Structure prediction request, 195 residues.
Amino acid sequence: MTALTHLLYLHGFRSSPQSAKARLLAAHLAEHHPGLSWWCPQLPPSPRAAMALLEQGIAAWPRQTLGVMGSSLGGFYATWLGQRLGCRTVVLNPAVDPARDLAAHIGEQTAWHDPAAHFFFRAEYIDELRALAAGPLRQPEHFLAVIAKGDELLDWREMAARYAGARLRLLEGSDHGLSDFADHLPEVLDFLQLR
Prediction:
């Protein structure tokens, strides 16, 4: 595989580019891969709007040398993009069925990294999520799934089954936010050929 020139990072529900994982990755890339194009946008609450933003933002990126990475809901989005683009994709505790899981969260929400920031998660977003179901992995070898058995929000067994055939890193313990992400960064970078 060719070395990456571009990397897209997608945060999770109620999260932001200020997440600990995004900041850790950004700092590492700035120090060790300053020539790499890195984009971690603030995603709108509408899945359809989020995909439109991403498709526009990466339209000119070279398909052979781009990678996608996402956490939680961002992992669901990254899977959809990775399937469409055929690129290397890393998912971190990825949401498997967010239409089911987020149906209970319709209404006003606060942003995780800025409780003063509010957004409204609308009922129609559930159908937008259903429309992004990516189906079975067509090229599982292009995927690395880092899954914590200690995830307090998502079922690790469901995640592992969804990414069967992909490179799986099952963590004993840890948590949904992968607070020990720094320990797993070398494997992620190795998969992306960015060490």
User: Anything to note?
Assistant: Residues 70 and 78 are 5 Å apart (CA to CA).
